[in-house]
Each structure stands twice: as structure tokens, then as C-alpha cells.
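Before a colleague's protein record goes any further, I have to sign it off. Thanks in advance; the entry in question is below:
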Amino acid sequence: MKKSTYRLIFAVAKLSGAAAVALGLTACASTSATLPPAPVIAASADYNYIVGPGDSLNINVWRNPELSASVPVRPDGKVSTPLVDALVAQGKTPSEIARDVEKALSKFVRDPVVTVIVTNFVGPYSEQIRVVGEAAKPQFLPYKQKMTVMDVMIAVGGLTDFADGNKATIVRATEGNKRYSVRLQDLVKHGDISANVEMLPGDILIIPQGWF
């Protein structure tokens, strides 16, 4: 095959590749542009913390210090305290756990009064905030009431030098994985507080890489 033919094939392949990249960039930009902005206010006032594996619970039985204990929630979602073995804690509020402990102790103690306080917060997987992509420290975070995307970005150390922060998206599990756009570049790099929005339990924050 002649050299001129090779050069022609190479030129066509190069143009095709460039066209594919341009098409991909256009598609990404179009997709980002069509996403609705994330609501500034999202959290509801009646949110109750849900306990998950890895949490630590301070279980206090009134007037019965020998039955009180600080215990971790095991990987199977259960806790064990004096006279109460393998009580399911995962997926319940602290108040619900307290009522379950009272019911279990009522076999041994007359009218037990129990309070449960969470002292180390992890939460169930379904409630955790996940940050993936071009964050300095991608990770999961326990959800907290009124948590905002600014709080999340502080926790993950901000954006990398390669991040396209203004094309970041929030995938909202509580709304059937609906996607919202969020302007992280404006918020983190330029201090535009209007770009700050509230997070919800189970949100996934995806930060794409920019093209340079």
C-alpha cells in the first residue's frame, strides 16, 4: 500500500476520533444543561436519625446502672446489653430501640425506663451521603439534619485540579434516583453562596473530570 494511502487512512481516523470526542462533549454538556438545579431547601423538619452498623449507643436503664451499657451496633445490625441479647437496632430510631429494650427487660425488671443516645454516628448505608469522582477525598459521610453541599465539600477536602465542578450532579435516592445539577465550582472556588443546596439522606454527589 502506498504511503499516500496510509496518510489518508490516518487522517480520516484522526478526524473520526476528534468528531467522536466532540460529540461526546456535546452530549455531556447537553445532559448537564437539561438537569434541573438542586433545590436550595430540601430537608424536612421531622427527620429522625436512623441507627446503622458502626454506630455506638449509650443505653441507660433508669435506677439500674448494672443494666446500662455503651455498646456498638454490630455489622449484622444488632446490639447486646445485660439481659438483652441480639436486639435488632439497624433501621430504627433511638426511641424505637429504647422501647424494644424496655420490652425485653420487662421480663426481669418491673416497669423499666430506658433512654438511648447515639454517641458515634455512621448510619445505615441507605442514609449515607456518597461523594465520587473528582473530590480531593472521595468517601461516604453520615447524613446530618440540614447538611448542605458546602458541608460535604469541606468534609471531602474540596475539588481536585481536574474537576469540572459546575457539571456536578446529585443523584437523589429519596426521589427515585432523580438527578439535579449543582454548581460546585462557583461555590467552592468563587464563594457563590447561592450555589449552596441542602442534601438528603442517600444522596450521591458525582463530580466529573473536566476536559483541558
